[in-house]
Amino acid sequence: MSLFSDNIRSLRVNKKISQEKLAESLLITRGRYVKYEDGSSEAPYEILKKIAHYYHISIDLLLSVDVRKIPMDDLLKLENNRLVLPITVDKDGENFIEVVTQKVKAGYLNGYADPEYIESLQHISLPFLGPGKHRGFPVEGDSMPPHEDGSIIVGRYIEKLGEVMDGKTYIFITKSEGMVYKRLNKNKKNVLVVESDNRFYPAYEVKASDILEIWEYECNIGRNDRKQEISESVSVKDMFLELKRDILEIKAKTFNYR
Fold first, then answer.
1. Domain check: are 206 and 237 in the same one?
2. What angle do CA 113, 117, 120 make, to 5 degrees?
3. Could you please report the per-residue DSSP string of 50-84?
4. By CB distance 3.0 to 4.6 Å, which of 78, 129, 143, 152 could disulfide with 136?
5. Do residues 232 and 148 both lie within one domain?
6. What does the pLDDT read at residue 122?
7. What are phi and psi of 221, to 5 degrees?
8. Which ranges in the chain belong to alpha helices (H)?
C-alpha cells in the first residue's frame, strides 16, 4: 500500500466513518473508493482535492507525510481556509513563530510540508503581531536595503494568491528560486513580477505555478542600530551599483554591435 492509501485509511478509521459513507460524500461509488484505499488505483486530482477538503488537511500532507505520526488536534486551522498547515500551537491555542535559520534554510524546500521538520525549527513569540500564521526567514545579500545579510524577516502566511498587493514585500518560496525576499511590482494573471529595492538587481517574473508559499512582511529582526544619516550612504552605494550595471549593459551592447 502507498503512503496515500495508508493515510486515507487511517483518517477514515479515526473518524469512525464507513467506506460507503465516505464514498457517498465524495460522490463516487464504494468500489471506486476501495481501490484508492487498498492502493490498487491512483486517485485523480479532483478526488484528491475532495478528500483533502473532507478531512481539512492539505494534499501535500496526504501524499508525502505519514499522518499517523501527526497530532492532528494540535495543528493550526487557518481562518477561512479548509486546509491545515503543519504548524504546532501551544496549550492555549496560540501559534508559535518558527524561525528558519540560515543553518537550516537549505532544507526548507523539502521540509515545509513535514510536521517533524517544522517542529525542529527554533520558536519565538512576538505578542504585538496581529492575527494569522507567522514565520521567520533569513535575509541574504544586499538586494533589499535596509535589511542586512543575516536579519530575519517575519512574514504572515498568505492563503490565496489573490491577496497579494503591488508595492508590498513578500517572502516567496518557489520551486526554482527557493526562498527569496522581494517587492511585488506587478500582479499579472498567473505571473508575478518581483523586484529588489536595490536597483542594481533587475526585476524578474515568477509563475504562479512555481510558488509553494507566500509570506507577507510584518517585521524585521536584526542588529542594525545605525543612525539615519548613515543610511544615506546606502543610497550612494545603490547609485554606484546602478552605474556599474549601466556600464556593463553598454559594454554588452557595444560587443553585440561589433
1. no
2. 145
3. HHHHHHT--HHHHHHS-GGGS-GGGEEEPTT--SE
4. 152
5. no
6. 82
7. -115, 110
8. 3-15, 19-25, 30-37, 45-55, 59-64, 108-111, 115-120, 228-257
CA–CA separation, 243 and 70 (whole Å): 53
476501495: which residue's cell?
34
As to burial, measured by CB atoms within 10 angstroms (0-12 exposed, 13-18 middle, 19+ buried), residue 16 is exposed
User: Do 172 and 242 fall into the same domain?
Assistant: no
Q: What is the DSSP letter of 203?
A: P
pTM for this predicted structure: 0.58
Domain that holds residue 133: 97-221
The band of 5, judged by pLDDT with boundaries at 50, 70 and 90, is very high
pLDDT digits (tens, 9 = 90+) for 145-203: 888 887 889 999 888 888 889 999 999 998 888 899 999 987 777 889 999 998 889 99
| 131 and 49 in a common domain | no
Q: Tell me: do 211 and 149 sit in the same domain.
A: yes
Domain identity same for 181 and 124: yes
How many C-beta atoms lie closer than 10 Å to residue 95's C-beta? 21
Instruction: Judge if 242 and 197 occupy the same domain.
Output: no
Residues sharing a CB contact under 8 Å with residue 126, sequence separation 6 or more, in sequence order: 97, 134, 154, 219
What is the Rg, in whole angstroms, of the alpha carbon atoms belonging to the chain?
23
